[in-house]
Amino acid sequence: MSCLMVEMKYGSQFPPRKVTSRSIASNRRHGLAIFAKYLRFTTYNWTTCFFKRIYLQERCGEISFDSPDQNAKCVRMLGDARVRGQTGVLSERRGSYPFIDFRLLNNTTLSGEIGTKKKVKRLLSFQRYFHASRLLRGIVPQASLYLLDEDYLGQARHMLSKVGMWDFDIFLFDRLTNGNSLVTLLCHLFNVHGLIHHFQLDMVTLHRFLVMVQEDYHSQNPYHNAVHAADVTQAMHCYLREPKLANFLTPSDIMLGLLAAAAHDVDHPGVNQPFLIKTKHHLASLYQNVSVLENHHWRSTVGMLRESRLLAHLPKEVTQDIEQQLGSLILATDINRQNEFLIRLKSHLDNQDLRLEDAQDRHFMLQIALKCADICNPCRLWDLSKQWSERVCEEFYRQGDLEQKFELEISPLCNQQKDTIPSIQIGFMTYIVEPLFERWAQFTGDTPLSENMLNHLRRNKAKWRSLLHKQHSSTRSNDHSGQVTGSQEQTLNEEETP
């Protein structure tokens, strides 16, 4: 079948010529070289291998083996990590090539063959060139490069086996998947939760939709990018496994939760709603200054669902219901509605009237779970939490610089000269994160995950307080030294005056 597909793609490129034994041998060598290229890409991207294996074992959805031209397109798309857009132009993968974690490489059995760090860097440099250059099509990679790829695949697979752990390092996972953390994670979770089989989703269509979502995030945003979406999705997966909630969730609930987490910030411009309103942005006018960004994220997601035709095989009433519930979940992430949801959650918990057998109550708790996942960074390990804090503040500061450039009033938390990272984080934890996660822990019943998150939150807050204290001490010390220097200068001037 694979040879047939290669022939379908490349057969028309070769003019007819006299058939000889030499020409037959040459065609075979050329065909094998081209086929080797597809095998190389398949071994490079382990996600592709997963897709192809499921694709061959169990066909679901719209495309079948009775349509060989469609199958050729599917295999070409799965074999190549790049996706052809509407214009027919290949777009490169999002993100840069991954940084090699030498600590993990040293643990492999192949560390003796790979050699020094310098040699590994040389191999990676050639690998980057190999993937980027069209002149090298058909050339089979050297064994050392193959081993290096296998090391990446092994690390990524190992991480996915622990995707339910709260210490999951999404930054490392993004590097190991070559900037494709969101697509790789979602495909894995859809398979783990049995959603592909339950909803009879086509694997190729699912992959195409997830690539669309991932590429609609802006990688130049320090915080609101596809890595943040993958982090929120991983957190959502952890929350969906909490026994108090998991025992009542339906496949539809799980799919809605994961899709909403993945797409909740899609096409985020890197500025907040007040900025869009005061600059009279067309989105602010379109949504009448109410949940502007959240409405845009929701509508963009619906557009991609329809364009990809991921749910086209389901009844129209079902797809419309999914779209509406997606909107309800994504709109719940509006930080301006925080008190609204907290008051409602507190009322349910105090009255003990949550009935998770009821679809409305389950949906409300999915909204709370997504809100928690969206702002869970302060509840992560310090090293991860600190990175996220620096990223979000960098995005705030960029907005402040933009406002200053255009002589607009600088938004709260966006003035780099006045708003320090520790002070921003302490305020965020105190007034936003702590109240929500304390109520979430009350709902889940103080599970190990909830206790772990609250412990991280308290430790991280204490560290930010310590850093803030050091900043204040340093500022006072500098001010005091400046005053001493000034008085000394005045004394010297008086002594020099006759």
How would you portray this structure in words?
It contains 24 helices and two strands. With 498 residues, it is an all-alpha fold. Strand 1 (83-84) and strand 2 form a beta hairpin.
Shape: globular
Q: Output the number of helix runs.
A: 24
- Note poorly predicted spans: 1-19, 38-148, 484-498
Q: Mean pLDDT across all residues, rounded?
A: 77
Number of strands: 2
Counting helices, strands and paired strands, the structural category is mainly alpha
* SSE series: HHHHEEHHHHHHHHHHHHHHHHHHHH
How far apart lie the N and C ends?
103 Å
- What Rg is obtained from the alpha carbons, in whole angstroms? 27 Å
Largest sheet: 2 strands, antiparallel
Strand order of the largest sheet: 1-2
Helix content: 55-70%
Report the sheet-strand fraction: under 5%
Keywords:
498 residues; mainly alpha; two-stranded antiparallel sheet; 2 strands; disordered N terminus
